[in-house]
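Example 3.2
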Amino acid sequence: QVQLVESGGGLVQAGGSLRLSCAASGGTFSNSFMGWFRQAPGKGREFVAGISRSGGSSSYADSVKGRFAISRDNAKNTVYLQMNSLKPEDTAVYYCKATMPSGVGYWGQGTQVTVSS
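Structure, written as tokens:
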């Protein structure tokens, strides 16, 4: 069983930056594809960014390309999301997800990001 704990959320003004972290335990972190998702009030959960097991490749939603960067440290069992040039529309609960080679996925509990205009 994999446990994921997100941290780093908070309140920031538009144009500011935040760095989210997601610490994993209970599984082989380096075997998992990691992703960040978000859910704004009244909306469905959407993909934000993903990173391969080795960290050699990543992908982003069009809405965050050029502003957000995903990275991972397999030695620390942690994945990060650096968020720059934040906009009010980035306001959401951010979740990390670990997807194992079997296809089974695990979610964290989420961290709130609020961007004020």
